[in-house]
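EI: anyone free to look at a 440-residue chain?
SC: sure, send it
EI:
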Amino acid sequence: MENNPELASYAMKQSTSPALVPDWRRALPERILMCLPFTLFFPVGIMYAGILLFYIGLVISGDWRTKLDNVRSTPLLVPILILSTVSVVIGLTTDKVPETAQEFWPGFAHYQTYILLLPFLSLGYGDWQRKAVKIFFGSAVVASTLFVANALHLLPDNTLFRSYVLYQGNKSILLGMLLAIAAGWMLHELRLRQDHRWLRIAVLFYVVAALILLSKTRTASLMFFLMCGLMLMQNFNWSWRSLALPLLLVVSLYGGCKYATNLPPPATCSINDAHVAPWEVIKIRAVCTIQQVRDFSEGRKIDDDGMRLEIYKITFGMIAEQPWTGHGIASWMPNYQKRSQGLSSNTMTTPHNDYLLYATELGVAGLFALIGIWIMQLRIAYRMSKSAEISIRNRAMLLAMLTSAMMLGGMFNAILRDGVFGMAFMILLAIPLAGVRRSS
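SC: here you go
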């Protein structure tokens, strides 16, 4: 064999053949990936440890030819490579100022977040996806229970539960977003399945109650209502009866906004300083949001709760300066700090908006590349909804809901600029997207 290269090559192929790899090794990446949704509800280090285990399982599972074929055939491959290429070109062609030198490579890495989805998509379609959804639902129930335990002052303030006890920025926001996505997916499952119907309804209300009353994030609540709207649109029939509910909701929303603008301002808009019942927190956040928008539009001073409007206004001015090529990777923070001297938002590290961040740093090409990925996700969901296979049609709504949630979340948070958000969404995207091919 040593003197026969062809024979040696044949022996090497046989040694890595799927038939000679034990079943437990072949199934290891799927088993790890289906458990990763549980890690999202705890400190980010646990999530990264789970991802590392997945990569190890992927390496020892073998059958690389099939996995590479799965990656090459995914419809998202080209849009993902386009975004990465744009970031490389912008990184090479724009001038780097001294303020961005230390932040350039971390900023560049954040624009490659979607690349990290491809190893997950190397797995094929299988029963692991259905199990992953169940684990995600169970994890949402556990997280809701932890929120309730904290409301009853029963949760210890340690590293494992700190994001439930204290408001910790992006991690606390992510917990709310995960509950919203889980609730939307539960609503979809409720429509599909008739078994244990009352139990499913009770669990859905339990998660929604924790989301709205205890999670302390407005964006997540908006995500859930958006996904409810998708469910209504899926079964929408043009009739006066079908139009009555949306019209009633619009009128009620308008009336509520008018009422909120005339209310006296709350003593504080900071939910960390407001020691009130959960339902009062909802009222405070709603009233403060509406009044801050009014005050900003009329040129009056706003407090820290309304600083996003301030950030958006200054960032739009930055985009107008270099709309086509952008200011370069990791350039937003130093440029913003120069323009926001004396403002409460001067210490912000992102504009809390993916669309504005991509337009500021990568220009029009970067913004269109990001939107192109999300449009492709919606297109894949639409094509899946027309499939003859029931399981594929069922996953279509999961993908549509998740994509809509990402598009909405990107309006109020830099969900792809932060690894806490980005990797969580890549793990969830793998559940409906794995096994989808361009040819199908």
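EI: Residues 22-433 form one domain.
SC: 👍
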